[in-house]
Amino acid sequence: MKAFTKERGIVATLNRANVDTDQIIPKQYLKSIKRTGFDEGLFCDWSHRADGSPNPDFELNQPRFNGARILVVRNNFGCGSSREHAVWAIVQAGFSVVIAPRRDRNGSSVPAFADIFANNAMKNGLLTVELSENDVDRIFSAVGGHEGLEASVDLEPQTITLHGTEELVVAFDIDPSKKSYLLRGLDDIALTFEHEDQIAQFENRHDMQMTGA
Amino acid sequence: MAKTLFDKVWDAHVAATLDDGTVLIYIDRHLIHEVTSPQAFEGLRMSGRTVRQPGLAFATTDHNVPTDNRLVIADPVSKTQVEALENNCKEFGITLYGLDSDKQGIVHIIGPELGLTLPGTTVVCGDSHTSTHGAFGALAFGIGTSEIEHVLATQTLPQAKPGTYKVDFTGHLKPGVTSKDMILKLIGTIGTAGGTGHVLEYTGDAIRDLSMDERMTVCNMSIEGGARAGMIAPDDTTFQYISREDRPFAPKGEAFEKAVKKWKSLPTDDEATFDREITIDCADLAPQVTWGTSPGMVMDVTEPVPDPSSVPGYNRVDVEHALTYMGLTPGTPMTDVAVDTVFIGSCTNARIEDLRRAAMVLGGRNIAEGVRLLVVPGSEQVRRQAESEGIDRIIKNAGGEWRFAGCSMCLGMNPDRLADKERAASTSNRNFEGRQGKGGRTHLVSPEMAAAAAVEGHFVDFREWS
After folding, report:
1. Average confidence (pLDDT) over B59-87
2. A175 in any annotated domain
3. CB distance B24–A199 less than 8 Å?
4. Cβ-based contacts of A18 with chain B (< 8 Å)
5. Which long-range contacts (C-beta less than 8 Å, at least 24 apart) are formed by A39-46?
6. Cα–Cα distance between B300 and B333 in angstroms, integer?
7. Does residue B421 sit at the A interface (CB-CB below 8 Å)?
8. For residue A19, what pLDDT band results from cuts at 50, 70 and 90?
9. Alpha-carbon torsion A53, A73, A127, B27, what sign?
10. Which of A10, B288, B359, B377 has most Cβ atoms within 10 angstroms of its Cβ?
């Protein structure tokens, strides 16, 4: 896996909550048996009109977002299907960071990203950053007021710096094991094989046929 | 220390504890289908790795299956994907219930049918609806393709322990209200991310009343509430289901008796606590219908289409967008909304009991003029059972189409799709934009509600209609 340390690039915003993986990459792209070529399918039902031409009304089609590397969205991004193709599409389209807000609902905090999506992202070196709604609102308004706004996302100090007319620094929290995994960019199957003895011992004592033994 | 059902299954599967506190969870059953697995097998080949426990992996073909003639796949890309699964299973020694198998079907329907899904086990599959298997008291969750490769190579997954969330369904359902309505009501209450980071446990009288087929519908849609897994403690209903002769992978005879004794220790201890709890009263639950483009956008069938300013948990802009996509005007009674297509199928509602309930509605009736009814059994075993009961004839006599088993119009990877702006009553699990076909408009309902909508040409309150 590719390690993630820092990234600097244009910030693109997509002002939608509950973006599901069917939206990120529609079904017709799921038939491929390859690991490449998914960038074409990214948000393609939204980014194209019925006749196949680009949809100028779709936020990410704005020329100001050309070459963007950081994607900012709303709550519960990547919900629905487990398809890892959604992460492949985002990465292959040039993004290396997705930022979304956690949200308060009925007194509890709703995570920014769906579980399976967040896992898939990590396995592909795509950094998912969870911020408060307030911080994400600030990024949305900074991007809205500054064409071609760039940001730096630095994983070691856990900061996002917006390079607008004035620099704005936003700190973020991240699970320490996820952080270390991304910084090192290791092959996690190889890491698991370091515990092969324990797996074999488990298999010896476990009821492998589930017969109640 | 008192433990929940989840804690017991989790603790019994920790193969190793890693330095950062995460653990390697051992996987008892790895279910595989053609869509999410090819890149995982390719990864194994590229790194020169093998499958650690081919005997614990089971594959079937479901997403791409043409349900009118399942042996002929016209789409060359679909065909290539199906052939890739056949070749991968052959190369790595994995059992495949392929297109020519009499046990083929939707992966989450054949697992329990074959006795592969058992209480207290861990089950994974590269498919978010793996949560279905939690109905047996298994810890079952969907994984991505990188994780499929990980399980193939190591039979384990590195995992952080999720939180626990008790969902207590109190009271008893009224006639005409189903387990589909229970789970839709829950999702409408907690939202589509309400269960994120948690494993749900469903408890209460309304759950205990349910058959296994009905329980699977509840657990199936846990993921639509954000939870990767949803579990139900095993009881006599569970054991009876597993004890049937035709479940080849379930323990038999003395082994079964021994297993039941062990399974009886799985239910959550009385003193155990959960990180979160919620109660949903089922006594006055109404049939549910989704009105938007997220499973949490759901309401009682007796209600009108909501105003964008009055939907808890959703921003106005998202509701407006959803209503525009769905072609609905706030204030319209849901029972005035006409449907073009009715789809009865999917891993949520295509088991034999679902089809029997749909047939009860359709028997001696005709579907409304201009309505297309598609009934797709969840497995070839379900199809044959239904045909032996005459369900196929009831559906065809009513004017519906009776198909072979597959995922079909739930996601339209095969030729069964909605056209632009076509409106469907669907027993599936996702009303996302474009899910059933680009521009298609999906309303999620129970099999009874779907069948009644086919007869009337619009939604009805099934409690009064029947």
Report:
1. 93
2. yes
3. yes
4. 192-193, 294, 296, 318
5. A39/A89, A39/A92, A39/A93, A39/A94, A41/A85, A41/A89, A42/A89, A42/A90, A42/A92, A42/A93, A43/A14, A45/B433, A45/B434, A45/B438
6. 11
7. no
8. very high
9. negative
10. B377
A1 falls within a domain: no
The proportion of chain B whose per-residue pLDDT surpasses 70, expressed as a percent, equals: 100
List CB contacts (< 8 A) between A33 and chain B.
38-39, 42, 80-81, 84
Report how many domains make up chain A: 1
Could A212 and B321 be called an inter-chain contact, meaning their C-beta atoms sit closer than 8 Å?
no
CB atoms within 10 A of CB A165: 10
Tell me how crowded residue B7 is: count the other CB atoms within 10 A of its CB. Answer: 17
Instruction: Please name the residue ranges forming H helices in B25-106.
Output: 38-47, 76-92
CA distance B19 to B107: 35
* Residues A20-46, mean pLDDT to the nearest whole number: 95
Task: Output phi, psi for A199, to 5 deg.
Answer: -65, -45
Chain A CB contacts of B411 under 8 Å are: 22, 27, 81
- B453/chain A closest Cα distance in angstroms: 26
ipTM for the whole complex: 0.96
Domain with residue A123: its CATH number is 3.20.19.10
The answer to whether residue A140 sits within a structural domain is: yes
Instruction: Please answer yes or no on whether B143 and A80 come within 8 Å at the CB atom.
Output: no
In the prediction, which pLDDT does B70 show?
82
| Among candidates B77, B78, B433 on the partner chain, residue whose Cβ is nearest the Cβ of A45 | B433
Model pLDDT for residues B400-420, shown as the tens digit of each residue: 999 999 999 999 988 899 999
Question: A211 and B434 in contact by Cβ < 8 A?
Answer: no
Give residue-wise pLDDT tens across range B239-279: 999 999 999 999 999 999 999 999 999 999 999 999 999 99
Residue A147, domain member (yes or no)? yes
Chain B contact probe: residue of A16, A18, A43 with most B CBs at under 10 A: A18
Mean pLDDT, rounded, for B87-93: 98
Q: How far is B423 from chain A (nearest CA, A)?
A: 18
Helices (H) and strands (E) in chain B, counts: 16, 19
**Closest chain B residue by Cα to residue A84:** B144
